[in-house]
Fold these 4 entries.
Entry 1:
Amino acid sequence: MNKSKLKKGATLLLLLLSAIIVFLIVGCTNLGHNSQNIISSSNIFKEMQTTDINGNTVDSSIFSEKKLTLTNVWNTGCTPCIDEIPILDKLNKEYEKKGVSIKGLLLESGVGLTEQEKSVVEEILSKSKSSYQ
């Protein structure tokens, strides 16, 4: 099997697993409630404030920029997380005009990044040639 077919298979597997996770989450919601009410009353990320890799303030307003925002929580020690960055970047570009945005949320052990951690993150993003946030 050549690398191209293996890469396509891995991408399809990742997309399939993502779809299964979404269906499981949707399927586990309370069916007695209107889904629109559940979404509008959610307090998840209602008041979020953090900083990006460049020290700029990022708040929960990023979730109102598009119709749907997918947040990818990742870590520099998570190889699968790093491997999916180029895929998510491609999907972000592909679905941008359809009202979908993909945001990366780096989750490290402490508050803020040390210079060493920042350097590692910048290297990962540079190698992945990713432009999504």
Note: Residues 3-27 form the longest helix (25 residues).
Entry 2:
Amino acid sequence: VTLGDNESLIVAGLMKEKKRKFKSKMPVMGDIPILGYLFRRTEHSSDILELVMVVKPRLVAPIGEDESVALPTE
């Protein structure tokens, strides 16, 4: 990929899917073999997370031999 100064490139596609299952029931009544189905609940949820990166290069002038550059730690 070739980009010019201040042009953007979007890199995406890394996805993560998270599935969850949650069960709840009424005490004692939810444990009855056939009728227990009426007293319990199951929930399913699914989340999808996608990573998107934006790359934006900036062109800078080269540093001359007699010039010094201040580092962020100085």
Note: The chain has a mean pLDDT of 89.
Entry 3:
Amino acid sequence: MATIRQVELEKSHLKQSCTELEGEVNMLRDKLSSVHSELIKTQENLEQFRSERDNEDSSRDRMKLELKNLRETHSVLAEESTQREAQIETLQQRISENQTKIRELSSLVSERDEIVEKLRQTRVLEKTSFVEPSLDRIRSVQLVEQLKDLRQQLMEYKATSMTSKTERAHLQELVNHLQGELAARVDELRQSKLEIDRMRRQHESDLETTQSSLHEKLQQMEDKWNDANTKVKQLEAELEVCKINGIPYLNSESKLEEHTALQTAVEALEREKKNLWNLLDETRNERNSLREQLNRLRESFEEEVEKHKKTKVALESKLDQKAEELAQLLQNHTSAVKSDGYSQDSCKANREPIEQAAIKLMSDSDEWTGSEELTRTWRVNASADWAMIQ
């Protein structure tokens, strides 16, 4: 009897423990449903994050397209810079040709002055000597013909000089146009650089916000995973106790099913956690790649700006040198004119083309270098020299 009572007492205790376990199982079911609802919310958040990631991919594609356009602009600018250097070399060659023609004109002027001097001496001799007039007339006719030839050559040279001036003006206009285009392209590159910096800052802020939200979601999922893992361990322990104490098979089977479902939910949460970690690593790698591309683009832009600065400085120095050479040539010509003794009208007629060419070249040099004081000093000196000649 005592054994039966003891067995009945143990049976009642087991029933009571089974009732408590059933209550705990019901509580676990409620918690599992709440975990399932939270998992659904997490999936919705993941879908939202995927849509945000798609938007970031589209913005990254736009940035890549802009980088490609900037590279094409850089290549076009390099080609235009090469063409401009070739045109500058052509312009310098034409300037040297004009200087050669000016030297030829100076030699022609000196020859004409010699002929005029000979005519003057002939007229003096005509008045003072007793040579036969026929010889003097022949010499005078020859000298007049030579003078006509020289005038014809001078007219041809003036026409050639006007043609060269027109070509030089056209080349100068082309150089100015290329300079304007170059300045516009440089401004466009600066604006593109500012826009890329702004997009980089915005993208970095978006990435930081996304990273912080991902960390929060991962932390929440880790907490849920730890809670679910603890519950699974508790259920496994209770199941072992039930098996040892002989709980009916139906209750053990239902708990086993609940344990399996909970284990499946825990594995799903763990997979979702791994996916989020992989997505976070991909986002970090993309951010580092964008930073490297931006740094390469910035270095290329700085190299292009430095190259254009060097080209401009070299061009300014060459133009200054050509202006000094032309001023020296004009000074030498005025010195030669001082040594001769021809009239004021012919002096003005001969100096005007050279003076206009020199002033045009100096004004072009002022446009490049901004040396207005040099131009004014040269003009004052030239005016003083011509005043002394007159």
Note: The helical segments are 2-128, 133-245, 249-339, 344-369, 372-389.
Entry 4:
Amino acid sequence: MSRELVQPRAARMRQGAVALGVGAALLLAGCSAGQITQTDTQVAAVNGAAMTQGDIAVRDAQLAYPKDGDFYPQGADAPLIVTIVNTGDNPDKLVSVSSPDASGVRIEGSTELPGHFALRTPLTDPDDAARPGQPAGSPSPSPGAPSPSPAAGNRVSEPGRVEITITGLKYGLRSGQTLRLTFLFQNAGEITMDVPIAAPTAPRTRDAGHGGESSGGGGH
């Protein structure tokens, strides 16, 4: 008689433990889903376009914010802000950059991409935007590509400098619109992406605060 009472009671205890385990798993799944959402939000905060093909990664590609406002008129030239990284061991080279919506693209400086090496445009850092003639962060003034350190491993050596300018826009371009660009590499091939206009380097809140009201910023 006592065995019949003990066995159902033990079964109920096992069922309760299983239910608690399922509930804990659901809670953990909910927490991890929240972490994924936070990560997605952080990635989306990056202004520039990014794409990887093979060992070549084009990162944070964007047109410099126009000097005279948020608009590039037809026929204007637009400097490109971009970082290009060779994450592999084999060398590569940036052959050309082209756009169907521009007359051409001018490339000046280093185009060689040894293994574990990066190319950066002068406007990559926000501080450079105010002083486009000065190199930022990189102590090497030489436009040539320095040889990577043998002990670099997976780390990228000091970046090289390259200037890329989109010339002769075929139509006006303003903030919120994108320009299609194709990067051609000697080994990695083509990488095509839609590049946006960068955000202004000076926070707009300063101008709004100076006027007292956000609607009065243009009255100064």
Note: Residues 1-45 form one domain.
